[in-house]
Amino acid sequence: MNASLLRSVVYIAALCGLYLSTAMLVPAMVDLYYGHEDWRVFATCAFMVGGISLMAAMATRGVPPTFSKRLGFLLVNVLWAVFAVVGAVPFMFSGPELNFAQALFESMSGITTTGSSVISGLDTMPPGLLMWRSLLAWLGGIGIVALGLFVLPFLRVGGMSFFKMESSDTNDKPFARLATFTRAFMAIYVGITLLCAIAYDFAGMSHFDAINHAFSTVATAGFSTHDASFGYFQSDAILWVSTFFMTLCSLPFSILIVFAVRGRLDALRDPQILVFLGYVSAFAIATAVYNHVKNGVDLLEALTHSFFNFSSILSTTGFASQDYLLWGPFVVMAAFFATFMGGCSGSTAGGIKAYRFIILFNVITTGLKKLIYPNAVYSVRYGKQTVDAETQRTVFLFFSAYVFLWVMGSMVMAALGYDFATSTSAVITALSNVGPGVSTLIGPVGNFATFNDPELYLLSLMMLLGRLEVLSVLVLLMPIFWRT
């Protein structure tokens, strides 16, 4: 491995650590505003982390190397690891004073927009700590969209390139310069956050709750300021507002930008959008009807909670309005399989993602046709585009690695003493960046507070693997990657 490349990675990571230390001043000001003594913790952490980051940046400053796949793979892994470690520092000294494994888990959950938590008693936690959790998730969401739109398509391990989408032909780029596109993305992201906060406020949340939940909703992260999550509010209006914004932020941000800035309705015809909205509706309606028939719940109420909770799972947000595990075994099974699926590429959602299911389905149907007509020529298509062989290979490689990691992780959890439901759902909810599992211990009304350090380290790794699209992490395990 080239020494200058490693130095450049450390330099960029140090700069990001410096930016994140500056962000710590926000919860410090929140605590100061509410008169809570914890503002000193965040202020101290900000100066400590900022000083270390500044020294590291000055020591490694130099001419940056040309961007390459090797630099890209190393950079995304180091950046997310640094974000998680830096974000963990305040958790160890503020509020519940978590140990390092717990703090790392909480921070990793925020920065990967997973939403799992080891903190109980959120209703009595310092406001700065609650703001830090939400802010980590919101900042993580920005990085995740940028990763999915710009970096992963270049590395050929995930994401769908903005200029290769059906909504944006390469001969008619809606934005000639990357800087223009980046500014538009930031404007959309901040704008949606403001609209979400205002909508929550009008629907009945307090100002503080509205801001925190808007950060978490737009990032599809699932961090709440209350142990009961959205069950605390007892408001259908709030549930529908959240359902709308969770679904919206699971769509490709590039297409949202094309629609918002260029007014192109055809951008919304992207196949993955139709598939995602289709399975959200199918899961929600099926479980609502089941809950209405089996449990006698009013149909409108059943639809409200089904759309909210399954939008939350499929967008990989992780909010909950009720303990849907009590609705019946069909709902538990539906929630378990929904945990795998995820949203669209280029969004803040995690999971396997809709576009991969489209490609997998078309590869399988094309293969079956070839069995009938071996000499015929069939192409695998994504909408009007032909999917090249390398993309097909990458999709199958991702899917295989995803299932393998889930199985191996579940086996490790079982070896550590957990039952089948807890083991399998804990690993897949971490790998898909969803949040709650489908067991009593870690379900929609539970959390990960009872987990020991080894389990928390394992699940933190799974969250990182899932967020970085698995392959970009696994490639670092190949000896050939480190050869000069």
From TrEMBL:
Q: Where in the cell is it found?
A: Cell inner membrane; Cell membrane
Q: Where is the signal peptide?
A: none
The membrane topology noted for this protein in its Swiss-Prot or TrEMBL record is: Multi-pass membrane protein
Q: What is its main location?
A: membrane
Positions annotated to bind K(+): T113, T114, T316, T317, N433, V434
Q: Specify the protein name.
A: Trk system potassium uptake protein
Which molecular-function annotation in GO is an example for this chain?
A: potassium:chloride symporter activity
Keywords from UniProt, A to Z, are:
Cell inner membrane, Cell membrane, Ion transport, Membrane, Metal-binding, Potassium, Potassium transport, Transmembrane, Transmembrane helix, Transport
Phylogenetic classification of the source organism: Bacteria, Pseudomonadati, Pseudomonadota, Alphaproteobacteria, Hyphomicrobiales
Q: Quote the function comment for this protein.
A: Low-affinity potassium transport system. Interacts with Trk system potassium uptake protein TrkA.
Q: Where are the transmembrane segments?
A: 9-29, 41-59, 71-93, 135-155, 175-200, 237-261, 273-293, 324-342, 393-418, 425-445, 457-482
Check the record and name the InterPro entries matching this protein.
Cat_transpt (IPR003445), TrkH (IPR004772)
What are the GO cellular component annotations? Answer: plasma membrane
Tagged with keyword DNA repair: no
Give the similarity note.
Answer: Belongs to the TrkH potassium transport family.
Highest taxon, organism lineage: Bacteria
